[in-house]
Specification:
With about 475 residues, the chain is α/β, with parallel strands linked by helices. It contains 15 helices and 18 strands. The protein has an eight-stranded mixed β-sheet with strand order 3-2-1-4-7-8-9-10, with helices on both faces. The protein has a six-stranded parallel β-sheet with strand order 14-13-12-15-16-17, with helices on one face. The longest helix has about 30 residues. The radius of gyration is 25 Å and the shape is globular. The relative contact order is 0.08. The C terminus is likely disordered. Bound molecules: nicotinamide-adenine-dinucleotide. The site of nicotinamide-adenine-dinucleotide has 27 residues, from α1 and α5.
Protein backbone atom coordinates (compact mmCIF):
# COMPACT_ATOMS: atom_id res chain seq x y z
CA UNK A 1 0.00 0.00 0.00
CA UNK A 2 1.56 3.34 -1.00
CA UNK A 3 2.33 5.87 1.72
CA UNK A 4 1.55 9.56 1.25
CA UNK A 5 4.78 11.27 2.27
CA UNK A 6 5.97 14.87 2.43
CA UNK A 7 9.73 15.49 2.29
CA UNK A 8 10.82 18.73 3.95
CA UNK A 9 14.16 19.94 2.58
CA UNK A 10 14.79 19.01 -1.05
CA UNK A 11 18.58 18.94 -1.19
CA UNK A 12 20.91 16.05 -2.00
CA UNK A 13 19.17 13.74 0.49
CA UNK A 14 15.58 15.02 0.38
CA UNK A 15 15.23 15.15 -3.39
CA UNK A 16 16.93 11.81 -4.02
CA UNK A 17 14.91 10.12 -1.23
CA UNK A 18 11.66 11.68 -2.45
CA UNK A 19 12.27 10.68 -6.07
CA UNK A 20 13.24 7.11 -5.18
CA UNK A 21 10.31 6.65 -2.77
CA UNK A 22 8.00 7.94 -5.52
CA UNK A 23 9.58 5.55 -8.04
CA UNK A 24 8.53 2.67 -5.76
CA UNK A 25 4.90 3.74 -5.85
CA UNK A 26 4.64 6.03 -2.84
CA UNK A 27 2.97 9.40 -3.28
CA UNK A 28 5.59 12.09 -2.59
CA UNK A 29 5.42 15.85 -2.17
CA UNK A 30 8.81 17.57 -1.86
CA UNK A 31 8.91 20.89 -0.01
CA UNK A 32 11.72 23.43 0.20
CA UNK A 33 12.08 26.91 1.63
CA UNK A 34 13.83 28.13 -1.52
CA UNK A 35 11.29 29.09 -4.21
CA UNK A 36 13.93 28.66 -6.94
CA UNK A 37 14.38 25.02 -5.91
CA UNK A 38 10.63 24.36 -6.19
CA UNK A 39 10.43 26.21 -9.52
CA UNK A 40 13.28 24.11 -10.89
CA UNK A 41 11.77 20.81 -9.65
CA UNK A 42 8.41 21.70 -11.15
CA UNK A 43 10.16 22.06 -14.49
CA UNK A 44 11.65 18.61 -13.95
CA UNK A 45 15.18 19.92 -13.48
CA UNK A 46 17.22 18.92 -10.37
CA UNK A 47 18.99 21.94 -8.89
CA UNK A 48 22.25 20.00 -8.37
CA UNK A 49 24.23 17.43 -10.31
CA UNK A 50 23.63 13.79 -9.44
CA UNK A 51 23.83 10.92 -11.96
CA UNK A 52 20.46 9.33 -12.88
CA UNK A 53 18.46 11.91 -10.94
CA UNK A 54 17.25 13.93 -13.91
CA UNK A 55 15.72 10.91 -15.69
CA UNK A 56 14.22 9.64 -12.44
CA UNK A 57 12.61 13.00 -11.72
CA UNK A 58 11.14 13.11 -15.22
CA UNK A 59 9.67 9.66 -14.80
CA UNK A 60 8.14 10.16 -11.32
CA UNK A 61 6.62 13.47 -12.35
CA UNK A 62 5.13 11.86 -15.44
CA UNK A 63 3.66 9.03 -13.35
CA UNK A 64 2.00 11.55 -11.01
CA UNK A 65 3.68 10.09 -7.92
CA UNK A 66 5.89 13.15 -7.32
CA UNK A 67 5.33 16.85 -7.06
CA UNK A 68 7.01 19.82 -5.38
CA UNK A 69 5.56 22.77 -3.50
CA UNK A 70 6.60 25.65 -1.24
CA UNK A 71 3.48 25.13 0.86
CA UNK A 72 4.09 22.95 3.88
CA UNK A 73 0.41 23.09 4.84
CA UNK A 74 -0.63 21.78 1.43
CA UNK A 75 1.97 19.00 1.69
CA UNK A 76 0.95 17.96 5.21
CA UNK A 77 -2.75 18.00 4.37
CA UNK A 78 -1.98 15.30 1.80
CA UNK A 79 0.55 13.23 3.76
CA UNK A 80 0.60 10.58 6.49
CA UNK A 81 4.29 11.08 7.12
CA UNK A 82 6.76 13.94 6.85
CA UNK A 83 10.46 13.16 6.36
CA UNK A 84 12.68 16.02 7.50
CA UNK A 85 15.85 16.24 5.39
CA UNK A 86 17.15 19.75 6.06
CA UNK A 87 20.84 20.54 6.56
CA UNK A 88 22.57 19.94 9.90
CA UNK A 89 25.88 21.70 9.25
CA UNK A 90 28.77 22.22 11.63
CA UNK A 91 29.08 25.50 13.49
CA UNK A 92 32.43 25.77 15.25
CA UNK A 93 32.64 21.97 15.33
CA UNK A 94 29.18 21.54 16.90
CA UNK A 95 26.02 20.38 15.19
CA UNK A 96 23.98 23.40 14.12
CA UNK A 97 20.28 22.64 14.50
CA UNK A 98 18.99 26.01 13.26
CA UNK A 99 17.47 24.56 10.06
CA UNK A 100 16.16 21.54 11.94
CA UNK A 101 14.46 23.58 14.62
CA UNK A 102 12.83 25.93 12.11
CA UNK A 103 11.60 22.97 10.05
CA UNK A 104 10.32 21.02 13.07
CA UNK A 105 8.52 24.04 14.53
CA UNK A 106 6.91 24.76 11.17
CA UNK A 107 5.69 21.15 11.05
CA UNK A 108 4.46 21.44 14.65
CA UNK A 109 2.41 24.53 13.83
CA UNK A 110 0.85 22.76 10.85
CA UNK A 111 0.10 19.60 12.86
CA UNK A 112 -2.54 21.52 14.82
CA UNK A 113 -4.57 21.96 11.62
CA UNK A 114 -4.51 18.31 10.56
CA UNK A 115 -7.49 16.10 11.28
CA UNK A 116 -5.44 12.97 10.50
CA UNK A 117 -2.47 11.32 12.26
CA UNK A 118 0.93 12.39 10.94
CA UNK A 119 4.28 10.75 11.70
CA UNK A 120 7.24 13.12 11.82
CA UNK A 121 10.45 11.34 10.84
CA UNK A 122 13.93 12.86 10.97
CA UNK A 123 16.04 11.83 7.98
CA UNK A 124 18.83 14.35 8.51
CA UNK A 125 21.89 13.21 10.44
CA UNK A 126 21.40 14.34 14.04
CA UNK A 127 23.28 13.44 17.22
CA UNK A 128 21.97 10.56 19.34
CA UNK A 129 19.24 11.86 21.60
CA UNK A 130 18.16 14.73 19.34
CA UNK A 131 14.90 13.26 18.06
CA UNK A 132 13.49 11.93 21.34
CA UNK A 133 14.37 15.10 23.29
CA UNK A 134 14.71 18.30 21.24
CA UNK A 135 12.64 17.38 18.20
CA UNK A 136 9.89 15.95 20.38
CA UNK A 137 9.85 19.07 22.58
CA UNK A 138 9.83 21.46 19.61
CA UNK A 139 6.95 19.53 18.07
CA UNK A 140 4.94 19.39 21.28
CA UNK A 141 5.51 23.08 22.05
CA UNK A 142 4.63 24.23 18.53
CA UNK A 143 1.59 21.98 18.12
CA UNK A 144 0.20 21.93 21.65
CA UNK A 145 -0.10 18.16 21.13
CA UNK A 146 1.60 15.22 22.83
CA UNK A 147 3.63 12.40 21.31
CA UNK A 148 1.02 9.78 20.52
CA UNK A 149 -1.23 12.39 18.94
CA UNK A 150 1.49 12.59 16.32
CA UNK A 151 4.17 9.99 15.58
CA UNK A 152 7.96 10.32 15.86
CA UNK A 153 10.70 8.48 14.04
CA UNK A 154 14.29 8.63 12.81
CA UNK A 155 15.36 7.07 9.54
CA UNK A 156 19.04 7.79 8.83
CA UNK A 157 20.26 8.00 5.27
CA UNK A 158 23.40 6.26 4.01
CA UNK A 159 23.47 7.30 0.34
CA UNK A 160 26.73 8.54 -1.15
CA UNK A 161 26.72 11.57 -3.40
CA UNK A 162 27.72 10.64 -6.92
CA UNK A 163 25.83 7.36 -6.70
CA UNK A 164 22.94 8.50 -4.55
CA UNK A 165 20.10 7.13 -6.69
CA UNK A 166 21.78 3.74 -6.99
CA UNK A 167 22.52 3.67 -3.26
CA UNK A 168 18.98 4.59 -2.27
CA UNK A 169 17.36 2.12 -4.65
CA UNK A 170 19.78 -0.64 -3.63
CA UNK A 171 20.05 0.15 0.08
CA UNK A 172 22.20 -2.24 2.12
CA UNK A 173 19.75 -1.94 4.98
CA UNK A 174 16.98 0.34 6.15
CA UNK A 175 17.20 1.58 9.73
CA UNK A 176 13.76 2.26 11.17
CA UNK A 177 13.94 4.21 14.40
CA UNK A 178 10.64 5.01 16.07
CA UNK A 179 9.09 6.16 19.33
CA UNK A 180 5.59 4.82 18.59
CA UNK A 181 4.06 1.83 16.87
CA UNK A 182 2.13 3.74 14.18
CA UNK A 183 5.31 5.41 12.94
CA UNK A 184 7.16 2.10 12.89
CA UNK A 185 4.36 0.55 10.85
CA UNK A 186 4.17 3.52 8.48
CA UNK A 187 7.94 3.36 7.83
CA UNK A 188 7.68 -0.39 7.36
CA UNK A 189 5.03 0.15 4.67
CA UNK A 190 6.98 3.00 3.07
CA UNK A 191 10.01 0.75 2.64
CA UNK A 192 8.12 -2.47 1.87
CA UNK A 193 9.36 -2.48 -1.77
CA UNK A 194 12.94 -2.64 -0.43
CA UNK A 195 13.87 -6.27 0.18
CA UNK A 196 17.08 -5.59 2.14
CA UNK A 197 17.34 -6.18 5.88
CA UNK A 198 15.38 -3.77 8.07
CA UNK A 199 16.51 -2.90 11.54
CA UNK A 200 13.88 -1.78 14.05
CA UNK A 201 15.30 0.32 16.89
CA UNK A 202 14.54 3.40 18.97
CA UNK A 203 15.38 6.81 17.52
CA UNK A 204 18.63 7.36 19.43
CA UNK A 205 19.99 3.98 18.35
CA UNK A 206 19.11 4.87 14.75
CA UNK A 207 20.98 8.17 15.16
CA UNK A 208 23.99 6.40 16.68
CA UNK A 209 24.14 3.86 13.83
CA UNK A 210 24.61 6.68 11.33
CA UNK A 211 27.39 8.37 13.35
CA UNK A 212 29.18 5.13 14.10
CA UNK A 213 29.08 4.24 10.42
CA UNK A 214 30.65 7.53 9.36
CA UNK A 215 33.17 7.64 12.22
CA UNK A 216 34.50 4.15 11.46
CA UNK A 217 34.96 5.02 7.78
CA UNK A 218 36.70 8.28 8.68
CA UNK A 219 38.95 6.41 11.13
CA UNK A 220 39.95 4.01 8.38
CA UNK A 221 40.83 6.84 5.99
CA UNK A 222 42.92 8.71 8.56
CA UNK A 223 44.66 5.50 9.66
CA UNK A 224 45.63 4.73 6.05
CA UNK A 225 46.82 8.31 5.59
CA UNK A 226 48.93 8.40 8.75
CA UNK A 227 50.67 5.16 7.80
CA UNK A 228 51.09 6.42 4.22
CA UNK A 229 52.76 9.60 5.50
CA UNK A 230 55.12 7.42 7.53
CA UNK A 231 55.93 5.24 4.51
CA UNK A 232 56.56 8.40 2.48
CA UNK A 233 58.88 9.77 5.15
CA UNK A 234 60.94 6.57 5.14
CA UNK A 235 61.10 6.35 1.36
CA UNK A 236 61.47 3.29 -0.84
CA UNK A 237 57.95 2.04 -0.06
CA UNK A 238 54.81 2.41 -2.14
CA UNK A 239 51.88 2.47 0.25
CA UNK A 240 49.49 1.13 -2.39
CA UNK A 241 51.60 -2.05 -2.56
CA UNK A 242 51.48 -2.20 1.23
CA UNK A 243 47.71 -1.78 1.33
CA UNK A 244 47.27 -4.32 -1.44
CA UNK A 245 49.25 -6.77 0.69
CA UNK A 246 47.09 -5.95 3.69
CA UNK A 247 43.85 -6.22 1.75
CA UNK A 248 44.69 -9.78 0.72
CA UNK A 249 44.13 -10.83 4.32
CA UNK A 250 40.87 -12.79 4.09
CA UNK A 251 39.43 -10.68 6.90
CA UNK A 252 39.51 -7.73 4.49
CA UNK A 253 38.71 -9.66 1.32
CA UNK A 254 37.06 -13.01 2.09
CA UNK A 255 37.77 -16.06 -0.07
CA UNK A 256 34.70 -18.00 -1.15
CA UNK A 257 34.57 -21.80 -1.14
CA UNK A 258 35.19 -21.89 -4.89
CA UNK A 259 38.41 -19.91 -4.37
CA UNK A 260 37.13 -16.60 -5.69
CA UNK A 261 37.96 -13.57 -3.62
CA UNK A 262 35.47 -10.83 -2.71
CA UNK A 263 36.92 -7.31 -2.85
CA UNK A 264 34.53 -5.32 -0.66
CA UNK A 265 33.91 -1.62 -1.24
CA UNK A 266 35.44 -0.88 2.13
CA UNK A 267 38.87 -1.37 0.50
CA UNK A 268 38.34 1.89 -1.39
CA UNK A 269 38.70 3.60 1.99
CA UNK A 270 42.18 2.08 2.33
CA UNK A 271 43.77 4.35 -0.26
CA UNK A 272 46.26 7.04 0.72
CA UNK A 273 45.22 10.52 -0.32
CA UNK A 274 44.60 14.13 0.62
CA UNK A 275 41.91 13.32 3.18
CA UNK A 276 38.16 13.08 3.41
CA UNK A 277 35.78 15.96 2.73
CA UNK A 278 32.16 16.45 1.79
CA UNK A 279 29.11 17.45 3.73
CA UNK A 280 29.11 14.43 6.05
CA UNK A 281 32.35 12.91 7.37
CA UNK A 282 34.07 16.09 8.64
CA UNK A 283 30.99 17.59 10.26
CA UNK A 284 29.70 14.32 11.68
CA UNK A 285 33.02 13.38 13.28
CA UNK A 286 33.35 16.91 14.66
CA UNK A 287 29.80 16.87 16.02
CA UNK A 288 30.16 13.59 17.86
CA UNK A 289 33.55 14.60 19.20
CA UNK A 290 32.18 17.84 20.65
CA UNK A 291 29.09 16.09 22.03
CA UNK A 292 31.40 13.51 23.62
CA UNK A 293 33.33 16.30 25.31
CA UNK A 294 30.08 17.81 26.58
CA UNK A 295 29.20 14.54 28.30
CA UNK A 296 32.76 14.18 29.69
CA UNK A 297 33.85 11.43 27.33
CA UNK A 298 37.42 11.42 26.05
CA UNK A 299 37.23 11.42 22.28
CA UNK A 300 40.97 11.00 21.67
CA UNK A 301 40.65 8.80 18.62
CA UNK A 302 38.27 11.19 16.87
CA UNK A 303 40.54 14.11 17.82
CA UNK A 304 43.38 12.32 16.05
CA UNK A 305 41.23 11.43 13.03
CA UNK A 306 40.29 15.09 12.53
CA UNK A 307 43.81 16.31 13.20
CA UNK A 308 45.32 13.95 10.63
CA UNK A 309 42.62 14.82 8.13
CA UNK A 310 43.03 18.57 8.50
CA UNK A 311 46.77 18.29 7.75
CA UNK A 312 46.44 15.89 4.84
CA UNK A 313 45.77 18.45 2.05
CA UNK A 314 48.92 20.28 3.23
CA UNK A 315 50.93 17.05 2.82
CA UNK A 316 50.34 17.28 -0.90
CA UNK A 317 51.62 20.83 -1.16
CA UNK A 318 54.61 19.84 1.00
CA UNK A 319 55.52 17.19 -1.59
CA UNK A 320 55.91 19.95 -4.14
CA UNK A 321 57.89 22.23 -1.82
CA UNK A 322 60.34 19.37 -1.22
CA UNK A 323 61.04 19.43 -4.96
CA UNK A 324 60.82 23.21 -5.32
CA UNK A 325 61.56 25.02 -2.06
CA UNK A 326 60.54 28.37 -3.56
CA UNK A 327 57.05 28.30 -5.08
CA UNK A 328 56.57 32.04 -5.51
CA UNK A 329 55.75 32.85 -9.12
CA UNK A 330 55.00 29.23 -10.05
CA UNK A 331 51.82 28.18 -11.83
CA UNK A 332 49.58 25.34 -10.69
CA UNK A 333 46.74 23.62 -12.51
CA UNK A 334 44.25 22.02 -10.11
CA UNK A 335 42.11 19.24 -11.59
CA UNK A 336 39.00 18.60 -9.53
CA UNK A 337 37.18 20.89 -7.11
CA UNK A 338 34.34 18.63 -5.93
CA UNK A 339 35.05 16.66 -2.77
CA UNK A 340 34.67 13.50 -4.84
CA UNK A 341 33.88 12.44 -8.38
CA UNK A 342 30.37 12.45 -9.89
CA UNK A 343 29.11 15.30 -7.74
CA UNK A 344 29.11 19.10 -7.85
CA UNK A 345 29.32 19.31 -4.05
CA UNK A 346 32.34 21.32 -2.88
CA UNK A 347 31.52 21.34 0.85
CA UNK A 348 34.72 20.62 2.81
CA UNK A 349 36.52 19.67 -0.39
CA UNK A 350 40.31 19.24 0.09
CA UNK A 351 40.72 21.36 -3.06
CA UNK A 352 39.94 24.45 -1.00
CA UNK A 353 42.82 24.23 1.53
CA UNK A 354 45.17 23.11 -1.26
CA UNK A 355 44.35 26.14 -3.43
CA UNK A 356 44.48 28.38 -0.39
CA UNK A 357 47.94 27.11 0.58
CA UNK A 358 49.25 27.53 -2.98
CA UNK A 359 47.93 31.09 -3.20
CA UNK A 360 49.53 31.97 0.15
CA UNK A 361 52.87 30.86 -1.24
CA UNK A 362 52.55 33.11 -4.27
CA UNK A 363 51.51 30.42 -6.77
CA UNK A 364 48.97 31.41 -9.42
CA UNK A 365 46.22 28.82 -9.71
CA UNK A 366 44.01 27.72 -12.57
CA UNK A 367 41.40 25.08 -11.77
CA UNK A 368 38.96 22.82 -13.54
CA UNK A 369 36.09 20.57 -12.60
CA UNK A 370 33.56 19.02 -14.98
CA UNK A 371 30.54 20.15 -12.90
CA UNK A 372 31.61 21.83 -9.65
CA UNK A 373 33.17 25.11 -10.87
CA UNK A 374 30.04 27.26 -10.36
CA UNK A 375 29.63 26.00 -6.78
CA UNK A 376 33.32 26.54 -5.97
CA UNK A 377 33.24 30.06 -7.36
CA UNK A 378 30.14 30.85 -5.30
CA UNK A 379 31.45 29.30 -2.08
CA UNK A 380 35.16 30.16 -2.14
CA UNK A 381 35.00 33.89 -2.81
CA UNK A 382 38.08 34.51 -0.63
CA UNK A 383 40.27 32.52 -3.04
CA UNK A 384 41.68 34.34 -6.04
CA UNK A 385 41.95 31.56 -8.62
CA UNK A 386 40.79 31.18 -12.21
CA UNK A 387 38.32 28.52 -13.32
CA UNK A 388 38.91 27.21 -16.83
CA UNK A 389 36.76 25.07 -19.07
CA UNK A 390 39.57 23.42 -21.06
CA UNK A 391 42.20 21.82 -18.83
CA UNK A 392 44.03 20.13 -21.67
CA UNK A 393 45.07 23.45 -23.15
CA UNK A 394 46.29 24.66 -19.76
CA UNK A 395 48.82 21.83 -19.27
CA UNK A 396 51.63 23.49 -21.18
CA UNK A 397 51.54 26.66 -19.10
CA UNK A 398 51.53 24.93 -15.68
CA UNK A 399 54.57 24.08 -13.55
CA UNK A 400 52.62 21.59 -11.45
CA UNK A 401 49.40 19.67 -12.07
CA UNK A 402 47.39 18.64 -9.00
CA UNK A 403 44.85 15.82 -9.47
CA UNK A 404 42.45 16.27 -6.55
CA UNK A 405 39.22 14.52 -7.62
CA UNK A 406 38.93 11.08 -9.21
CA UNK A 407 37.00 12.22 -12.26
CA UNK A 408 37.47 9.64 -15.00
CA UNK A 409 38.30 12.30 -17.59
CA UNK A 410 41.54 13.12 -15.73
CA UNK A 411 42.84 9.64 -16.56
CA UNK A 412 43.37 11.17 -19.99
CA UNK A 413 46.39 12.94 -18.51
CA UNK A 414 48.24 9.67 -19.10
CA UNK A 415 47.96 10.30 -22.86
CA UNK A 416 50.12 13.39 -22.45
CA UNK A 417 52.67 11.41 -20.41
CA UNK A 418 55.47 11.46 -22.98
CA UNK A 419 54.42 14.62 -24.79
CA UNK A 420 56.33 17.91 -24.53
CA UNK A 421 53.37 19.49 -22.68
CA UNK A 422 54.31 17.56 -19.53
CA UNK A 423 58.10 17.57 -19.87
CA UNK A 424 59.74 18.86 -16.70
CA UNK A 425 56.38 19.27 -14.94
CA UNK A 426 55.46 18.03 -11.49
CA UNK A 427 52.37 15.78 -11.33
CA UNK A 428 50.80 15.61 -7.86
CA UNK A 429 48.30 12.78 -7.87
CA UNK A 430 46.27 13.03 -4.66
CA UNK A 431 43.98 10.14 -5.58
CA UNK A 432 46.25 7.52 -7.14
CA UNK A 433 44.36 7.95 -10.38
CA UNK A 434 47.39 7.61 -12.63
CA UNK A 435 50.29 5.26 -12.99
CA UNK A 436 53.71 6.83 -12.24
CA UNK A 437 55.22 4.86 -15.14
CA UNK A 438 53.44 6.88 -17.83
CA UNK A 439 55.24 10.11 -16.98
CA UNK A 440 58.87 9.44 -17.99
CA UNK A 441 59.69 13.12 -18.42
CA UNK A 442 57.84 14.48 -15.38
CA UNK A 443 58.19 14.21 -11.63
CA UNK A 444 55.30 12.12 -10.32
CA UNK A 445 54.51 12.68 -6.63
CA UNK A 446 51.83 11.21 -4.43
CA UNK A 447 51.05 10.54 -0.78
CA UNK A 448 52.74 7.42 0.59
CA UNK A 449 55.30 6.94 -2.17
CA UNK A 450 58.71 8.51 -2.23
CA UNK A 451 62.12 7.54 -3.53
CA UNK A 452 64.42 5.99 -0.93
CA UNK A 453 66.26 8.64 1.07
CA UNK A 454 69.92 7.57 0.82
CA UNK A 455 71.10 10.45 3.00
CA UNK A 456 68.93 9.39 5.91
CA UNK A 457 69.97 6.04 7.31
CA UNK A 458 68.26 4.79 10.43
CA UNK A 459 70.40 5.01 13.54
CA UNK A 460 69.31 4.27 17.08
CA UNK A 461 68.17 7.53 18.59
CA UNK A 462 69.50 8.90 21.85
CA UNK A 463 66.42 7.55 23.57
CA UNK A 464 67.16 4.08 22.18
CA UNK A 465 70.72 4.24 23.47
CA UNK A 466 69.53 5.33 26.91
CA UNK A 467 66.99 2.55 26.84
CA UNK A 468 69.60 -0.05 25.87
CA UNK A 469 71.94 1.02 28.64
CA UNK A 470 69.21 1.28 31.31
CA UNK A 471 68.89 -1.53 33.88
CA UNK A 472 66.26 -4.02 32.72
CA UNK A 473 63.41 -5.29 34.85
CA UNK A 474 65.66 -8.07 36.15
CA UNK A 475 68.14 -5.55 37.49
CA UNK A 476 70.86 -6.34 34.92
CA UNK A 477 71.95 -4.41 31.85
P1 LIG B 1 21.30 20.20 1.51
O1 LIG B 1 21.87 21.46 2.07
O2 LIG B 1 21.67 19.77 0.14
O3 LIG B 1 19.70 20.30 1.54
C1 LIG B 1 18.96 20.84 2.57
C2 LIG B 1 17.73 21.50 1.96
O4 LIG B 1 16.85 21.85 3.01
C3 LIG B 1 18.05 22.79 1.21
O5 LIG B 1 17.50 22.72 -0.11
C4 LIG B 1 17.35 23.89 2.03
O6 LIG B 1 16.83 24.94 1.25
C5 LIG B 1 16.24 23.10 2.68
N1 LIG B 1 15.74 23.67 3.94
C6 LIG B 1 16.44 24.12 5.00
N2 LIG B 1 15.60 24.54 5.98
C7 LIG B 1 14.34 24.35 5.52
C8 LIG B 1 13.06 24.58 6.07
N3 LIG B 1 12.88 25.10 7.28
N4 LIG B 1 11.99 24.29 5.31
C9 LIG B 1 12.14 23.78 4.07
N5 LIG B 1 13.33 23.52 3.50
C10 LIG B 1 14.41 23.81 4.22
O7 LIG B 1 21.65 19.08 2.58
P2 LIG B 1 21.86 17.51 2.30
O8 LIG B 1 23.22 17.26 1.78
O9 LIG B 1 20.69 16.99 1.54
O10 LIG B 1 21.83 16.95 3.79
C11 LIG B 1 20.64 16.89 4.53
C12 LIG B 1 20.88 16.03 5.76
O11 LIG B 1 21.16 14.70 5.36
C13 LIG B 1 22.06 16.46 6.63
O12 LIG B 1 21.75 16.21 7.97
C14 LIG B 1 23.16 15.55 6.17
O13 LIG B 1 24.14 15.35 7.17
C15 LIG B 1 22.41 14.27 5.92
N6 LIG B 1 23.03 13.38 4.94
C16 LIG B 1 23.62 13.89 3.83
C17 LIG B 1 24.19 13.01 2.89
C18 LIG B 1 24.86 13.55 1.67
O14 LIG B 1 25.60 12.80 1.03
N7 LIG B 1 24.64 14.81 1.31
C19 LIG B 1 24.15 11.62 3.11
C20 LIG B 1 23.52 11.14 4.25
C21 LIG B 1 22.96 12.03 5.16
Amino acid sequence: MPVRVAVLGSGYVGLVSGSCLAAQGNSVICVDMKPEVIASLNKGVPHFYEPELSDLLTSVRASGSFRATSSLSEALANSDMVLIAVGTPSEGGRMDLTQMRAAVEAVGRELRNQAHFVSVVVKSTVLPGTTDTLVRKWLEDASGMQLGEFGLGMNPEFLREGRAVYDFMNADRVVIGSEDLKTRQCLETLYSPWKCEKLYVNTRTAEMIKYTNNCLLAIQISAANELANFAGALGGIDMTDVLEGVSLDRRWSPILEDGRRIRPDILSYLVPGCGFGGSCFPKDVQAIRSRGNEVNCDMQLLDAVLDINSKQPGELVTLWTREEPELKGKKALVLGLAFKEETDDVRESPARPIISSLLRQGVSVKAHDPVAMPNAQRAWTELDFECISDWRNALEDADAIFVITRWQEYRELAQYGSKPALAGKVILDARRLLSPDVFPNSTYLTIGRRAIQTDKHWTPSQVDEEHLSAPNVYGGK
